[in-house]
Design brief:
Number of helices: 10
Number of strands: 8
Shape: globular
Structural class: alpha/beta
Largest sheet: 8 strands, mixed
Strand content: 15-25%
Length: about 280
């Protein structure tokens, strides 16, 4: 059983539509795929309508958080998308994405980069605008060769020359809100140092004590030594260990199913969730 619990669509910063994502997941031989767009659930309906037979969809989101000045992402699975408190917080984060992207464009202009808001908005399309869309604009202009190369301190990484802050949820509050909506929480790529500063293990222990369910260990941004260290940390803290591609379509080099989650861990996630249930494919269009 092949399970990929971290994927993005055009509802945020991926390049596959939600329908294309589930079809591509099935073609890649996945049995389970999670749709975890940034701070939005807008892709759910399209993904469910197109869900092929033999593929199960886990609904989720990747929530933007910040602790002690360090940005982090919290994967939330199988929560009730209409639960009012979590919905209001997601909307607050999402609504702050546009002024933040505009601020990054202004900083890039001050650095002599001729990026425009219109260019970034075109790349984002109907998705929730984010740093990857600004990064894609830099690639179009030939400033950097790849989207990943834009996430450095020279450009868009936390603390970078063109970085701008946005509203981000306190992770302890995120855990509380997701639990209140019947969901399960997993700290995404906790040791992805090339993205900027990372959360210390002491803080991960505090999050575990507050109800964090797991950490994403098997991920393209973690080398073998890092994965081993995180696996040991998860064992010490009683956290679930997940693996995921963090697929963004053509925007990143990772492939669907590049890293996967153990079926027993997936089963535990579904047992803990009460806000929603995995959706089995019925042969969508």
């Amino acid at each position: 059983m092949r399970i990929d619990l971290h994927c993005h669509s055009t509802a945020s910063d991926g390049t596959d539509t939600p329908a294309e994502l589930v079809r591509n997941a099935a073609a890649a031989g996945l049995d389970v795929v999670a749709l975890t767009d940034h701070d939005t659930t807008r892709g759910y309906a399209e993904a469910i309508a197109a869900l092929p037979s033999g593929l199960t969809l886990v609904t989720g989101a990747e929530l933007s958080c910040r602790i002690d000045g360090v940005g982090m992402h919290m994967l939330a699975y199988l929560f009730d998308p209409e639960e009012p408190a979590l919905l209001a917080e997601r909307e607050l984060v999402r609504d702050d994405r546009v002024p933040r992207a505009r601020a990054m464009v202004a900083k890039l202009n001050a650095l002599g980069v001729p990026v425009t808001w219109e260019q970034v908005a075109r790349i984002a399309g109907e998705g929730s605008v984010g740093r990857p869309h600004v990064a894609a604009a830099l690639v179009e202009l030939g400033v950097v060769p790849t989207v990943s190369d834009a996430f450095t301190r020279d450009w868009l990484a936390d603390g970078g020359r063109a970085h701008a802050e946005k509203h981000e949820t306190d992770p302890f509050e995120a855990i509380r809100l997701v639990k209140g909506a019947g969901g399960v929480t997993v700290f995404a790529h906790p040791a992805a140092g090339k993205r900027g500063r990372t959360v210390p293990e002491s803080a991960i222990a505090e999050l575990a004590a507050a109800g964090l369910d797991g950490i994403e260990v098997d991920h393209m941004d973690h080398d073998a030594d890092t994965r081993e260290r995180l696996r040991a940390l998860a064992k010490d803290l009683g956290l679930l260990v997940t693996g995921s591609s963090d697929y963004h379509g053509s925007r990143k080099t990772c492939e669907l199913g590049e890293y996967t989650t153990d079926p027993e861990v997936y089963g535990e996630i579904t047992r803990r969730a009460t806000g929603a249930f995995p959706v089995p494919g019925a042969g969508g269009a």
